[in-house]
Design a protein that fits this description.
By secondary structure, this protein is an alpha+beta fold. It is 18% helix and 39% strand. Strand 2 and strand 3 form a beta hairpin.
């Protein structure tokens, strides 16, 4: 499926955010039993994060990235980096 992306795409980043978290005074630690997982086409788990426990106090997480290799293949990279940046900040960081 990644092969169908335009040739100039070199990374597909997977992010999770809490919409309007600041206004709602929410973070992942306040969402009971929250988790996120990324699975491949065969439904095999590539990564899983327990958001409530691992990212308490955070409102945004970069879950993973798929990175294009020089030969055109794609490599999965679990990231698991939490922050309090909003979705707009995340998008701005990519498109500067």
């Amino acid at each position: 499926m990644l092969a169908k992306l335009p040739g100039e795409v070199s990374e597909l980043a997977v992010w999770a955010t809490i919409h309007d978290a600041e206004r709602k005074r929410q973070d992942f630690g306040k969402v009971k039993n929250a988790y996120i997982e990324v699975c491949d086409a065969m439904d095999d788990e590539l990564c899983r994060y327990q958001l409530t426990a691992e990212f308490a106090g955070k409102t945004t997480i970069q879950v993973a990235s798929f990175l294009k290799q020089p030969d055109g293949s794609w490599r999965f990279h679990a990231v698991g980096a939490g922050s309090n940046a909003g979705l707009g900040d995340v998008i701005q960081a990519y498109f500067g």
